């Protein structure tokens, strides 16, 4: 490279850098110019002032027919010169803006040195004072404009118009009042309607009206203990507020119906001596949009007044799920499913249980059919199963039928009621009183802060999954407690409490037995059972409740009333044997559960059933226990084939369906078969374009496991043939047998009402086998005139009970 090149290189680079710097400087200066204004911003005040001057000129012309537009223009140019002056100033202002858009130096001079200094001085005032000065100037300007227009309308000077305007306003008051009265009547009609609709659904109970205390709440000691903490802080808020905390103001009680949620809320009010406000579940339902919002506002105004007067208040929202959900309807699978399982377990598939199940959308009954469509004279395929197995079967059925059994989101109050409730519960409260809010602000004084309202919001629901998430956040609902089924000790205490109110002769052991027999009894059901036992005693002409009264009351309340249907002899024997097989297999194999009742009396569409109750409170089941549940389900099929030479009734269909669902579900998810892979995971992977091949086809594993358990069940029944026939005889004789009597029959001991030892007497099995052989022959159509003697019955009674018309060949065609 030459010297000239070296010399010229830096020079050239410097020149290029200077040019770039000048370009950046010009761009910076251009950026400091005023941004070009829109056309409307340029002409809006010119149009306004021009229209105002035209108005005053037109006013002169319209008032004087001899006045020409030219004369009026010259006269108003002299008298209303200030309008033209403002118009001229606006023209100058627009020229100023135009120059600021073209010249950066001109724009910076005015913005920084002239207007900037004035603005910096104004900034010394705080924002509130600047706002008040600006508002005052706007008001004065608006009044001056109104006075000017009024002066021109009445053809007076501005001074005369200012002096005379108050008198004109005073003279117009009657007309204004008439207009206000007319508008008030129109609006008042709607206000009265909405006010009337906004009332109702809210009941206020004052401290002297509430007698309930925590000691009246039985069987929920763990929940009561936690609720006591909230009561303590409600009565002594300084204990937590002085240390920087806040008093919890919301409690949600959730759990099955009848467990005492409302009673706990009443006890809170009774213990604190505070007013108790009960909000009806349908209080916020209305046909007009907006009524619910008014009810919420009215409710919380009342709550704030009661809180200030009594130092606190308790408001209770029953069935809180009716408040609705702002999002999509909750479709949690567990809600209704758990309810269905509880209904199966509690009702045993009987009339009472089936009634509860039929209320679940998409639920199935004990026979695997839609609720309410079960075949008559069939066995209940659910009553003898564990609640875990019942829930799994219900889940499998729902999945296979592609049904959603979740809670279908609460109520339908989507008119803003829930939003209003959330706002009221948010804790942001405005200052109280018109003088405090308006007058003090007008005088430039800060309003006094609102007092601390001691409002304890309590809600109860059995569908917590349907509540809005914003409702359950801390600050609104701070505590969530499950009020579940009472424990055994709680049930004993509840039975003792309600029995103490009536005359009875039950011992402590019998009361404990009742508690064991009612694992999912609530306070409401226990109260109803005791009342039913009292009714039974009174019907018998007694005033003292006996153990038999309680047993009869339990049967009526838990399983429903039996109808007057009489089974024909052939079906009576087969149904009794069917249920006896269930009972024997369950008794010999199950642990942690006992038989509660065995019956062949028809209740609704159920021809008979064996109900079980749990005597242990557990969370999990083992594979071996699931297999036992399947064996209990298969017992009816195995027994009928074993005792009727390979034949079976269609009544085993529900049992077989339950067994199949249990096996398939646990092979799918709990390694009950030959493979370890989870079938549910395989399905999920297949949906995600991946696949896992099991060692054996799924259907073959299910069938193999059912065959295995079938053979095990067959061995149990073969080893207990005497027990099966003995219990069959007892069911045919007594129709309904308690669990203690079933145990006595199977063990050959004396029971409460049946002496089971007679079934072990020599010769009984010979007579029972002969009787059963006769029943099998009749089943095959080999009718006999000679009726064998039924053990335990006289010959005449046996003939009357068994010798049905179809036992004669000539009447066989009309027997069924």
Characterization of this structure:
By secondary structure, this protein is of the alpha/beta class. The protein folds into five domains: 1-26; 27-163, no CATH class; 202-328 and 410-482, 3-Layer(aba) Sandwich (Rossmann fold), CATH 3.40.50.300; 341-407 and 487-519 and 521-563, Helicase, Ruva Protein, domain 3, CATH 1.10.8; 570-814, Up-down Bundle (Methane Monooxygenase Hydroxylase, Chain G, domain 1), CATH 1.20.58. The protein is 57% helix and 6% strand. It is built from 29 helices and ten strands. It has helices at 3-31, 39-63, 69-79, 81-102, 104-122, 127-154, 158-197, 221-235, 238-241, 261-272, 291-310, 334-347, 351-358, 387-400, 417-425, 434-442, 488-499, 508-517, 523-539, 547-559, 569-589, 623-643, 653-669, 679-687, 698-719, 721-734, 739-747, 764-780, 795-802, and strands at residues 202-205, 250-254, 276-279, 313-317, 378-379, 455-461, 479-482, 593-599, 606-614, 736-738. The strands form two sheets. Strands 1-3-4-6-2-7 form a six-stranded mixed β-sheet, with helices on both faces. It is elongated and about 140 Å long. It starts with a helix and ends in a 14-residue tail after the last helix. The model is unreliable at 1-16, 328-378, 401-412, 684-695 and 793-816 (pLDDT under 50).
């Amino acid at each position: 490279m030459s010297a000239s090149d070296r010399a010229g290189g830096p020079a050239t680079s410097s020149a290029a850098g200077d040019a770039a710097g000048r370009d950046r400087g010009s761009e910076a200066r251009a950026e400091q110019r005023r941004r070009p204004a829109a056309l409307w911003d340029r002409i809006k005040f010119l149009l306004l002032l021009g229209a105002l001057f035209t108005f005053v000129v037109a006013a002169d012309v319209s008032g004087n027919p001899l006045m020409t537009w030219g004369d009026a223009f010259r006269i108003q140019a002299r008298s209303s010169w200030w309008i033209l002056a403002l118009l001229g100033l606006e023209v100058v202002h627009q020229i100023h803006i135009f120059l600021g858009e073209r010249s950066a130096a001109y724009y910076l001079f005015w913005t920084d040195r002239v207007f900037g200094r004035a603005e910096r001085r104004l900034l010394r005032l705080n924002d509130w004072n600047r706002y008040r000065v600006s508002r005052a100037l706007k008001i004065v300007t608006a009044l001056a404009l109104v006075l000017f227009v009024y002066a021109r309308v009445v053809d007076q000077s501005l001074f005369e118009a200012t002096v005379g305007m108050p008198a004109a306003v005073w003279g117009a008051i009657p007309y204004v009042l008439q207009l206000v009265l007319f508008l008030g009547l129109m609006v008042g009609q709607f206000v009265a309607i909405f006010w009337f609709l906004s009332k109702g659904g809210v009941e206020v109970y004052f401290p002297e009206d509430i007698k309930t205390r925590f000691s009246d709440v039985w069987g929920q000691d763990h929940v009561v203990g936690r609720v006591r903490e909230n009561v303590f802080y409600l009565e002594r808020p300084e204990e937590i507020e002085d240390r920087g905390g806040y008093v919890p103001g919301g409690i949600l009680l959730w759990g099955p119906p009848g467990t005492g949620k409302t009673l706990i809320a009443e006890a809170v009010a009774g213990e604190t001596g505070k007013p108790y406000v009960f909000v009806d579940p349908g209080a916020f339902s209305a046909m007009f949009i907006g009524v619910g919002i008014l009810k919420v506002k009215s409710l919380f105004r009342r709550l704030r007044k009661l809180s200030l007067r009594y130092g606190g208040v308790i408001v209770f929202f029953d069935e809180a799920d009716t408040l609705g959900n702002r999002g999509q309807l909750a479709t949690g699978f567990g809600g209704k499913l758990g309810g269905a399982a509880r209904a199966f377990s509690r009702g045993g598939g009987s009339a009472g249980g089936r009634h509860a199940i039929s209320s679940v959308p998409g639920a199935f009954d004990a026979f695997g059919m839609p609720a309410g469509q079960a075949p008559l004279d069939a066995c209940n395929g659910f009553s003898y199963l564990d609640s875990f197995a019942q829930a799994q079967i219900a889940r499998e059925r729902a999945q296979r039928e592609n049904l959603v059994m979740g809670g279908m989101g609460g109520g339908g109050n989507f008119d803003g009621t829930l939003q209003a409730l959330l706002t009221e519960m948010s804790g942001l409260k405005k200052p109280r009183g018109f003088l405090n809010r308006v007058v003090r602000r007008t005088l430039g004084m800060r309003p006094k802060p609102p007092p601390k309202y001691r409002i304890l919001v309590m809600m109860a629901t059995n569908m917590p999954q349907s509540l809005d998430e914003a409702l359950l956040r801390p600050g609104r609902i701070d505590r969530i407690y499950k009020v579940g089924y009472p424990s055994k000790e709680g049930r004993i205490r509840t039975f003792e409490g309600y029995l103490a109110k009536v005359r009875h002769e039950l011992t402590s052991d019998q009361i404990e037995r009742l508690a064991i027999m009612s694992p999912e009894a609530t306070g409401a059901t226990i109260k109803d059972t005791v009342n039913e036992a009292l009714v039974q005693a009174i019907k018998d002409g007694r005033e003292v409740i006996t153990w038999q009264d309680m047993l009869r009351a339990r049967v009526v309340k838990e399983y429903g009333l039996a109808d007057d249907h009489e089974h024909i002899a052939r079906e009576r024997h087969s149904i009794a044997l069917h249920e006896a097989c269930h009972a024997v297999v369950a008794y010999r194999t199950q642990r942690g559960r006992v038989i509660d009742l065995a019956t062949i009396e028809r209740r609704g569409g159920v021809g008979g059933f064996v109900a079980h109750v749990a005597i242990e409170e557990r969370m999990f089941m083992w594979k071996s226990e699931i297999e036992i549940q399947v064996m209990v389900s298969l017992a009816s099929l195995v027994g009928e084939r074993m005792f009727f030479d390979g034949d079976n009734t269609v009544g085993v269909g529900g049992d077989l369906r339950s067994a199949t669902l249990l096996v398939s579900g646990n092979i799918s998810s709990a390694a009950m078969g030959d493979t370890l892979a989870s079938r549910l995971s395989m399905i999920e992977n297949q949906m995600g374009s991946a696949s896992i091949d099991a060692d054996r086809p799924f259907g073959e594993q299910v069938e193999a496991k059912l065959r295995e358990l079938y053979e095990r069940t067959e061995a149990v029944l073969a080893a207990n043939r005497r027990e099966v026939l003995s219990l069959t005889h007892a069911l045919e004789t007594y129709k309904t047998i308690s669990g203690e009597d079933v145990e006595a029959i199977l063990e050959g001991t004396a029971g409460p009402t049946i002496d089971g030892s007679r079934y072990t007497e020599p010769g009984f099995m010979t007579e029972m086998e002969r009787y059963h052989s006769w029943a099998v022959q009749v089943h095959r159509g080999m009718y006999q005139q000679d009726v064998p003697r039924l053990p335990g019955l006289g010959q005449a009674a046996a003939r009357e009970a068994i010798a049905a018309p179809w036992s004669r060949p000539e009447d066989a065609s009309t027997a069924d």
